[in-house]
Amino acid sequence: MAGETSFPEPQLAGARLVVSARTYADFTPQASFDIKNCDVHKLEEGPPLQAVLTREEGLQYYRTMQTIRRMELKADQLYKQKIIRGFCHLYDGQEACAVGIEAGIKRSDHLITAYRAHGYTYTRGGTVREIMAELTGRRGGIAKGKGGSMHMYTKHFYGGNGIVGAQVPLGAGVALACKYLGKNELCVCLYGDGAANQGQIFETYNMASLWKLPCIFICENNQYGMGTSVERAAASTDYYKRGDFIPGLRVDGMDVLCVREATKFAAEHCKSGKGPILMELLTYRYHGHSMSDPGVSYRTREEIQEVRSKSDPITLLKDRMLSNNMVSVEELKEIDVEVRKEIEDAAQFATTDPEPPLEELCNHIFYNEPPMKVRGISPWIKLKSVS
Amino acid sequence: MHNSLDPRQRTQSNMAYLRSILRSGKNAVPAVLRREFHRTLQAAMQVTVRDAIKEAMDEELERDERVFLLGEEVALFEGAYKVTRGLWKKYGDKRIIDTPIAEIGFTGIAVGAAMAGLRPVVEYMSFNFSMQSVDHIINSAAKTYYMSGGLQPVSIVFRGPNGAAPGVAAQHAQCFAAWYGHVPGLKVVSPWSAEDAKGLLKSAIRDDNPVVFLENEIMYGVPFEMSEESQSKDFLIPIGKAKIERKGNHVTLVSHSHVVSRCMDAAAVLAKDGIECEVINLRTIRPMDMEAIETSVLKTKHLITVEGGWPQFGVGGEILARIMEGPGFGYLNAPAVRVTGVDIPMPYAKLLEENTLPQIKDIVFSVKKMLNV
């Protein structure tokens, strides 16, 4: 079936055996944490107020979030060195969203997001190597260097979309396919606070609700649509209510456990045939909108610093695990070292791998098509294109 | 079917058939006799373009579970132009979906469904409404296979009436062949006859890539003879191949969609003056069959493109540019010329509308001017 055979099998992000100096017997295997209450809209009740975290899960979430963090910071470096070009929208600060959502759905579920997509490409099975090589436009990139930052795909992950809001009806279409084919799968459709004012999103809310499509609409509200704060863009900033007839919940997006529990709750709602549901994740991005935006002309450095010191998602998880004796400081440091090494290796690959061969310039115009000629820059140049 | 046509309908059908025979230059009388004979044998058949389109969809819906239709009024209303009549009754809600009036939304949903492995056929009540959806057709569908380095194909068909229709005025009469023909990653098809419509739509639905299928309201009701071969459920016309509708030695007329009818009529008029036109029905706008055009120009040494769309940056402009850049230029005895719609929004009044689109007299005039007769 088209689209089913081309993707490589995805990797499970962050799952690695950590050999520690201390034995398992010394650590708490699991603990229960209080999580913030979610505001609800057209729902009788929200997700549970407590979440159970196992040591294993905690280590996996920590490693994954740390990998995303370090990967984005490395991308920042490479961009400043002009090795990454064009658009680069970084995700640092929002890690709990990608990791929490992935923890709340199945690998066989589907997900689509906008252009701030590196974190999701990773949680949906891409490797750091192929993500970074795509950013640097090399042949080892996840899209062979043809797509760049905003156009990365894996199995059941539909990108990476450059046009604000377009990914929402696309995601509802994926959900329609899930329902049509009778698979018990859902689609997570992500969009930002900026996109939330797009007309096509409201058209999608209507059809998804009418046809009871199994989709979870998730608004990642990081308070700013490029340089425009939410109060200056939206007549109503209660994004979780904007689906009107669609039930919604507002979630603390800096707490990976909160995000996970809310996602599980939403997935349950979808899969029970009740139709779509909307989640607003309150989160924050440390970088500007993109690498061309220093991010301080429309917000204060103090604000950024405050979020970093009080609500950083990785620190939140780390503190929880340490204070409950679920992990040691050394163990986390060990993970940090491993992550750093993985990122360094990937960056090394991404800067040394050659660019895509010029002979492949015109490939992949059509799928399942006999080879064809493509007009080159002047009429004497005929280029070859294969599927 | 045809045996159940009432006498008036049968006469109309006969006249239309006669006209189509005259156009194709065959000897009329034996053809009519043959046709009566054929009717009893049920070999060749008279089918309207509308019914041919429906047959194509019906057969493909039956053949592949993943194919489904969506658009405004396609189900219960049986299609704004009755193209999908009977399909909802046969296939039900799951496969024939009425959408709200939300072009950009339902186009996006269709493209997403295609990404996830289904094979949607999206109907636009008019391609003029597709302008709302053009972002999804181009940015979400056409470019995706390339941007993903070959990971994500999009198998989808966008179809509906395109171009002029009588009396519909400016906002409902634009031809989008040039707009969509501009985009790499799209295939753009513009059928003329019933056979074109059926064979090309089946190919489009079976194609694993985004195809824009430009029908025309004027052609919906026109009956054509459909050969026995074309009645088979596996009858396909390859996308990207033009058809010579009428052979001739003096001038090549290249056209697409409803304007092909005008060219055939003009050719019949010119034949009385001893001028034999070769009429090429493009069938596909992208990829365009330049080989067929060049082969014809080699023979006739004269080229006129005829289209209903606007002149600037149009289909004719592309053909002429390629002729200039290719072997065809060397064969021309006169500069190639475009006959197009007038460069204005489509007016409403009948007299004005008639003078905005190429008519038989305009084509005859252009041919005679080019041949200096």
Index terms:
heterodimer, A: 387 residues, alpha/beta, Rossmann fold, six-stranded mixed β-sheet, two-stranded antiparallel ribbon, 11 helices, 13% strand, disordered N terminus, B: 373 residues, five-stranded mixed β-sheet, 16 helices, 42% helix, 16% strand, EC 1.2.4.1 (chain B)
How is this fold's topology laid out?
The complex is a heterodimer of chains A (387) and B (373).
Chain A: E1 30-34, E2 39-41, E3 50-54, H1 55-80, H2 95-104, E4 110-112, H3 118-123, H4 128-135, H5 167-180, E5 187-192, H6 199-210, E6 215-221, E7 224-225, E8 228-229, H7 230-233, E9 248-252, H8 256-274, E10 277-282, H9 301-311, H10 313-323, H11 329-352, E11 372-375, E12 382-385
Parallel strand pairs in A: 4-5, 5-6, 6-10, 9-10
Antiparallel strand pairs in A: 1-3, 2-9, 7-8, 11-12
Helix pairs in contact in A: 1-2, 1-10, 1-11, 2-8, 4-11, 5-6
Chain B: H1 7-23, H2 28-41, E1 45-48, H3 49-63, E2 67-71, H4 87-91, E3 96-98, H5 103-115, E4 119-123, H6 134-142, H7 144-147, E5 157-161, H8 177-181, E6 187-189, H9 194-206, E7 211-215, H10 217-220, E8 223-226, E9 243-246, E10 251-255, H11 259-272, E11 277-281, E12 284-286, H12 290-300, E13 303-306, H13 315-325, H14 328-331, E14 337-339, H15 350-354, H16 360-371
Parallel strand pairs in B: 2-3, 2-4, 4-5, 5-7, 6-7, 10-11, 10-13, 13-14
Antiparallel strand pairs in B: 1-8, 6-12, 9-11
